[in-house]
């Protein structure tokens, strides 16, 4: 289905029983909602699982950039309001984790719990994102994908035939949407804001994550009093590489937070 948020129509997938506990997923830069396919397949069937594509990604509209994390989290609020979602457990991967933090800060009334996957209150620097935007402007996404994939995946996964679908997903993201999100990442610093988060939170990091390394994820976990877990033999996208391990962590966390 498509849900309107301001000037954009967002591609949303809403699965599971209408009255089930709500789990909302936000994906990372250069991926769409399919990044959670393997993980979602391992979660309990009684959950209402809502996924969407960020602006400029997947089947959502591409609107003019630059974007901000505030704007991207407003999109998730629009999805919740349109679908009437309450008591949301928000699972955010990378930039999706910044969106989840921003959502929890702005709408504690809607937030039951947070799962922060391979993310941080601040990812990279304005300088590093500026360099990436310059490379993208010159050569497109194909010019940077060889550098990105070894941060996303372990060497073993990268050498498997499975890896090429994720390269394809990355390289088929619209250049404008990708760059618009890089601007959001360059400007985002939720270091202060995330100390205001009071709901139960859990942080997860792939042991081999080359984009948001475990130490960085652990720092943010401390700021928002989240428990912290490492997923072995996985890079930046543990939901792709180790879906069973991530599903076990989330299922256990949902059990513990369900009645809070
Ligand atoms: O592209 C990367 O380096 C990984 C990444 C950073 C923010 C995000 O969403 O993905």
TrEMBL record:
<dbReference type="InterPro" id="IPR029058">
    <property type="entry name" value="AB_hydrolase_fold"/>
</dbReference>
<dbReference type="InterPro" id="IPR050266">
    <property type="entry name" value="AB_hydrolase_sf"/>
</dbReference>
<dbReference type="InterPro" id="IPR000073">
    <property type="entry name" value="AB_hydrolase_1"/>
</dbReference>
<dbReference type="Pfam" id="PF12697">
    <property type="entry name" value="Abhydrolase_6"/>
</dbReference>
<dbReference type="InterPro" id="IPR026968">
    <property type="entry name" value="PcaD/CatD"/>
</dbReference>
<feature type="domain" description="AB hydrolase-1">
    <location>
        <begin position="23"/>
        <end position="248"/>
    </location>
</feature>
<protein>
    <submittedName>
        <fullName>3-oxoadipate enol-lactonase</fullName>
    </submittedName>
</protein>
């Amino acid at each position: 289905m498509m849900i309107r948020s301001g000037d954009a129509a967002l591609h949303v997938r809403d699965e599971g029983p209408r009255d089930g506990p709500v789990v909302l997923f936000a994906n990372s830069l250069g991926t769409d909602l399919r990044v959670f396919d393997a993980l979602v397949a391992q979660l309990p069937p009684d959950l209402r699982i809502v996924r969407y594509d960020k602006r400029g990604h997947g089947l959502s509209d591409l609107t003019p950039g630059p974007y901000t994390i505030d704007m991207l989290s407003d999109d998730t609020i629009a999805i919740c309001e349109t679908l009437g979602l309450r008591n949301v457990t928000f699972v955010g991967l990378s930039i999706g984790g910044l969106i989840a933090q921003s959502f929890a800060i702005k709408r504690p009334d809607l937030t039951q719990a947070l799962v922060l996957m391979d993310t941080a209150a601040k990812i990279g620097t304005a300088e590093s994102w500026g360099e990436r935007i310059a490379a993208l402007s010159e050569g497109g996404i194909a010019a940077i994908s060889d550098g990105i994939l070894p941060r996303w995946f372990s060497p073993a996964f990268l050498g498997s035939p499975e890896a090429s679908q994720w390269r394809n997903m990355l390289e088929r993201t619209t250049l404008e949407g990708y760059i618009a999100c890089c601007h959001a990442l360059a400007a985002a610093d939720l270091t202060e804001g995330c100390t205001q988060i009071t709901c139960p939170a859990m942080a997860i990091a792939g042991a081999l994550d080359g984009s948001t390394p475990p130490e960085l994820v652990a720092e943010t976990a401390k700021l928002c009093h989240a428990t912290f877990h490492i997923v072995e033999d996985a890079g930046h996208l543990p939901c792709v590489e180790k879906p069973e391990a991530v599903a076990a962590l989330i299922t256990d966390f949902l059990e513990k937070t369900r009645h809070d």
